[in-house]
Every structure is written in C-alpha cells, then in structure tokens.
Design a protein that fits this description.
Two copies of one chain form a homodimer. Chain A is an alpha/beta fold. Chain A is 33% helix and 19% strand. Chain A is built from 14 helices and 14 strands. In chain A, the strands form two sheets. In chain A, strands 10-9-11-1-12-13-2-14 form an eight-stranded mixed β-sheet, sandwiched between helices. The first copy, chain A, starts with a helix and ends in a 9-residue tail after the last helix. At the A-B interface, helix 4, helix 5 and helix 13 of A face helix 1, strand 14 and helix 14 of B.
C-alpha cells in the first residue's frame, strides 16, 4: 500500500451511502471533420444525462498514463481504483476471465491454441489450419478427460473460439510470468516455458509443471490431424489483489452481461448478479438489489462494440438507449452516481485509444459545473479536470461522505 | 527506468510516422491590464495556427513542477521527455553546450570566470574588472597552449562573453558535482573544489584534478593584470542519458540556430542539421530532410528573446513571423505536429517563468477541442488538460500509433 492508500484507509468511515458506477464501455470519442466535428456523445439526444449534468460535475480521465491505450483489463482495474501499471494482469488471466472461468489468487493461466507438428516435433502450422470451434471443443474434452491433475495441481481446460483455448493450473506455490512456448515461426519445435524472473522458485515450479503437462498432453493428441500439438502464451498467475471490501469498505455488486467484465469484477471481489441481459434489466436489477449492496458496477458494452466497428450512428444510438433506460435507475437515485467509460473507442479509429474518457459525477455534494450536457468538450472544462482514472473511486467515496477530515 | 518507462518501452512499435516538435522558446505569457488583458499569442494574427487548431487538441504543460521556473536545460529536457528533476544537468555542462562544445558522457565541465588576486592569493575582484571578450579569448588561448593534458585527462578551454569561459576535463572515472571555487566574497582565497558526495571516489579524483589544474594554470596567469586568477562554478559531469533512439525508437534531427539548443539536442542523441539561420530556412530544411529522420525538433528563439526584453510588440511579431512560415513545413505535413514552448517568458516579467506553456497537438487522431485559435486561454479548456511537459513526447508517440494496446 502506498502512503496515500494508507491515508485513505485511515480516513474511511462507514456510511449507508449507495454508490453507482455506470460504465459505457469505450464511450469517449474524437470530433473529426468526417463526423461534422461532433462525437457520438455530442450528437446523441440524451435528455436524462443533460438533466443530471445540470447538478453534476465533469472531468476527463487518463485511463492508465499519457498516450497508453488500455485493454479491458487495465481499463477496468483503473476504474476500480487499482493502479493499472502496478497491478498487471496477464493475458492468460484476462482470456480465462473472458471465457467465464473463475480464477483464484495464485492460479496460473495461459492462452493456448492448437498447432500442427511434423513427426520430428517441429511446428508446421502455428494455428493448426484454424480448426473449427467444435473441433477445438472435442480436443479440449479429450485433454480434460486425460489430465485432471498433475501431482497436486488441478488442470482446467476451457475451449474458446476457433483453435484457441485456455489452460488453468490451480495449486500452491506457483507464479508467472513465463515465456511463451510459441516459437513464433514454423519449422521450429515448441519452445520451453521459462521463468521471466529466473531467480523465482515459484516460477521454476510453474515451468516444470508446464513441461510435465506437455509430456502428458502431446501423447493424447498424437494421432489427431491437423491439431496434434498446442502452443501457450501469456502464461501468468492471478495476482493477489485486495478486494473492494478490504480497500474501500464497500460491498460491491457487478451488473454486467459479458463474461470478461464479470471476471474483472470478480477479480476485485465484487459479487456477480447474474441474469440481466439488457441495460433496462440491469437497472431494474439494481433496484431489486439496492438494499443488498453499497456499490454497483453497471457495465454497458455496446458503445465500445459500435466504436470498434467504426459505426458512429449505432454508437450514438447505443448512448441514447442507455439514456432512455436511466430513469429506471433514478427511481432509487444513488447517493453518488458516476457515468463514464473505461477508455475511449473512437469511431474513426475502430479500436480502443488513449484519449481521456469523459466522466460525470452526481451527488448531493457535487455542485455543478454549469454544463447543460455530458460531452467530451464539456468535460474538458469541468471542475474535475483531467485526472487518472484510478482516482475516480476516491472522488466517489468523498461524495458519499466516506472520508473523515484529514488532520485538525 | 521507472515501471512506467518500462511499460512504454514494451509497448513501443516501429512506425513510419513523422513527428515534428516546433518549440517557440518562452512563448507562454500572461494577460495583464497593461497589455489589454491579452497575451502576445492572443494579440498576434496567426491564420495558419488558427486553421490547425480547428483540427487539433490543446493543453498546458507544467515545465518541471508547480512553481518551478526552468532554464533552457531543464525546459528542453522536459520537452524531450526526460524527467527534469531526476535528470539534472549541471550549469557547467549547459554553459559548455551553449558555447557550442560537444560533450561526451563522463566529461566534467565547469563555468569559469577570470578574477583578480592580490600577492597573497586573496580575491580582490571576483570578475577581474569585467574584462573584454577579446582579452578573455587571449587568456584562454594562453591557458590552452600551456595545458593540454593533466595526466591522462584532456583539458578543453573555451572562451565565452566578457570575463567568462568554460573548462572541460575529458577522461575516465570522474564525476561531479563539486563545490564552487568561488569564495563568493572578496578578501578570501580561491576555495577548494570539494566533492558534494564526500564518499565518491570519482568526485575525489575530479577534485584532485582541479587542484592540479590550478597549480599549472595560476603560474601561467601570474603576470597578467587584472586577470591573474579564475574561479570555477557549477562543476558537474555530463550524465549518461539514454538517447532519443534508445528511449523512443525515433531517429531525431535538431533544426536549431543557437548553440545551446543544438547542445541540448545533442545531449539526447539528436543529430544536428547545420546551416539554417531563419525559421523559413529551418522549415525548408525540414522538407529536405523529411525522409531521413522520424522526429524533428525545430527551435525558434525570438519569442523568448523578446519576452526577456519585455517587448510585447516584438514577441507578437515573432509569433506572426513563425505562423507565416508554417506553410513551408505543412508542404509535407508531419503525421504528428506539436507546437509549444519550453517554458513561458512573460513580457511583464522580462524573464523565464513557471507559468504552464500552451501546447497544440495535431494529428489524424487528435480530434479537436472546438477551439478556433491557439492561445493560453484556449489551451486552458483543451482536452489535454494541464500536464507535465515530460509527457508530451508520449502523447506524440501515441498519436503516431507507436504504442501497442496495453493488456487484453
């Protein structure tokens, strides 16, 4: 814990406040000539957010650090108040979470994919001809049936899309990161997974386990064609992260539809509320669960999805759809409501970006920035300024009156 | 390297992008009643920058840290992305660079000036009656002729203006900083240069060398009047700084007119492009060199010079002159263009200041902040916010698509 974290911790008071964080994934955008110098947020009709903004403050958040484009993992860790540079989560872990696997602290996870080997064990096709998902599922079932455990370590294998799958090793005393077993080029043998920190005994144990796993797994696949081998990448362990409850004294619920975001929320100890499939259902579920939690993380995927497609009109409409559903949430208005994204996904870029996402914060103590709308350009002149996303939760706690005065 | 620097390094991708950093030295100013509440940037007619700003973003940069007024050294180190608090360059080094001397890592450099000594070796005039530059040049030539080397250490002596000169010791195993030999008051003997870190063997070696230098040099000057002695200040070594190429994977060119800025650019491994004497010539040279470099540092001195004079009208005209020349640069529009200063030099203060300088960043991915002009007041409401100057280069790299996504 940093000195500042210790201070926050010491100042934290229990309250009965309800905090809600509505994440429009990738909502931030850029105003370009092609789009009439408007962003989707600016072009959208958002009467409810407009009304909120008259009694709210705004700002923009650097998701990680200047110029860095986050994936969903670092983006959400930042939003959840964890330093996304200090708290690095491996790709294997993120991939496992995305497939809906529940990870435990200490689990070592890896992205894997089937490949083709020649009789000498040299890789002839790093993607095994991109086999179909069904074939991948069959082969994963075969491996799962053949290998449940290695020594005391449990092995969990979960198929993904196409030739891809995930492997989790659940046991004691292991850690990542390890180097990839993917040789990156055809004509070479499967590489050894080696500890990145060669002095780590725990990583050495994980490396040995992966060798043993290959020794058991390759014979199972030897008569398969074209997928008679597999490569592993992003081999990392699930880090021990202090939970939301420990760090903020907040009992947190996750209302997300997609497994990746449920997984990221679970990583910090939020409780998943399963069931809702649309933003209206998520907000309705919030009403039902209002008394059971202090903090609600409500994740909305479509803004990001249409940003990735470069579909300005659809992204705009996705924003309008969320705005239209907001009155449901406001039936039991949270004491602190923050609306933002985990990063920007500008339509002209068709992908995540580093541009700071706008944020709106509404509470009885927010005052207002005299802004009639919630937009990127408005947020530029808001009282929150441009700040690191990891501080949003601290702002929310303050507005919930969760912090005692510091010093006399 | 900090953890964040390591992250930037890991994410860096090679691109073919061209980046240009146009530095209007000291451009930032303050709007006071005397100047009709306008700054020179606001008062100037700048149609080209106005046009750029419609498709650019803006912000303000803290050159070093809140309230700190940088000299040219820290100002430019910050602009070049090096932490100007962590990476301190001694005054001796800066002075040597300003005189056009090329320094090598490990060189120990000192500012020096001639003084007058009485027969007992006490300082009677710390500036030797402010002798003329010609006299200084003659005495430096005398010293240079008498002392080329001490043991294995090469001694380089370069006259400056008036009574000032610079001494460089080029050899192995030495470091600064050392205390000044200037006793600060008349009537005292020349002080000993002592290691600031007394436990440093390398600094002890440098201290001994300086004693030996005095022993050889003072007899050479003993019959001169009034300059029969000299004092040394800011004795420091040239730190080892990772080059631009190493740190950013950018092959950088320096297009500056004044030696100080060439020296600072050379310090971080930029290649000097010699020849141009005006901003039009610099921009034309940029066109010629376009294919040979990835990054262009283009330095413009006059905004600072007239700010130092407190000449509002001339500073305004200097801005207009640069704006008028900008179309040359835009003939081959860089993928990322940043226009800023290394600090502010407000006319009412007749000197450098701590006020954050405005910055404009233009790229295909910048979007816009809906600002019609590039000014301090406009920059206040730009999406870049107020940020530390050392991050500008990271912003530029992001806009050049030089960073891979962080995490999945």
């Amino acid at each position: 814990m940093t000195k500042l974290d210790t201070l926050y911790d010491q100042l934290t008071l229990p309250t009965k406040a309800k905090l809600a964080l509505v994440v429009m994934d990738g909502v931030g955008d850029i105003a370009t000539r092609e789009n009439g110098f408007l962003t989707p947020l600016e072009a959208a009709k958002t009467p409810i957010m407009d009304e909120l903004s008259r009694e709210a403050i705004q700002g923009r958040m650097t998701p990680v650090a200047p110029g860095i484009t986050p994936g969903s993992g670092p983006g959400h860790l930042g939003l959840f108040g964890y330093d996304p540079v200090e708290t690095q989560v491996g790709r294997g872990v993120i991939e496992a979470l995305g497939l809906g696997l529940e990870l435990q602290a200490g689990d070592v996870a890896a992205r894997a994919n089937f490949c083709s080997l020649d009789p000498d064990g040299l890789v002839t096709d790093r993607r095994a001809g991109r086999i179909e998902t069904e074939e991948c599922e069959r082969l994963c079932a075969l491996l799962s049936a053949g290998i449940q455990k290695i020594a005391n370590v449990q092995v969990i294998i979960q198929p993904g899309k196409g030739h891809r799958f995930v492997i989790i090793f659940r046991g004691e005393g292991m850690e990542g990161p390890l180097s990839d077993t993917d040789p990156q080029r055809e004509g070479f043998p499967i590489a050894e997974a080696a500890p990145v920190d060669v002095s780590s005994k725990k990583a050495q144990k994980a490396a040995k386990l992966i060798r043993d796993f290959y020794e058991k797994a390759l014979p199972i696949l030897k008569d398969e064609r074209p997928a008679n081998g597999f490569l592993m990448r992003g081999i990392a362990h699930q880090p021990m992260i202090p939970t939301f409850q420990e760090r903020y004294k907040l009992n947190a619920a996750c209302l997300a539809v997609y497994p990746m975001y449920k997984g990221l929320a679970q990583l910090v100890g939020m409780q998943k509320v399963e069931g809702p499939q649309s933003i209206s259902e998520q907000f309705n579920r919030y009403l039902e669960e209002y008394d059971h939690f202090d903090f609600f993380f409500i994740h909305y995927k479509y803004t990001d999805m249409y940003g990735e497609d470069g579909n300005f009109e659809a992204k705009k409409q996705a924003i309008e759809a969320l705005d239209e559903a907001l009155p449901i949430l406001l039936q039991k208005r949270p004491d602190v409501l923050a609306i933002t994204g985990d990063h920007s996904t500008p339509c002209p870029m068709k992908g995540h970006s580093w541009h700071p996402q706008p944020v709106l914060l509404h509470s009885a103590f927010s005052g207002c920035d005299k802004l009639d709308r919630f937009t990127e350009t408005g947020a530029n002149i808001g009282s929150m300024g441009v700040f690191e996303a990891k501080y949003l939760i601290r702002h929310m706690q303050a507005h919930a009156r969760m912090f005692d005065k510091y010093g006399a």
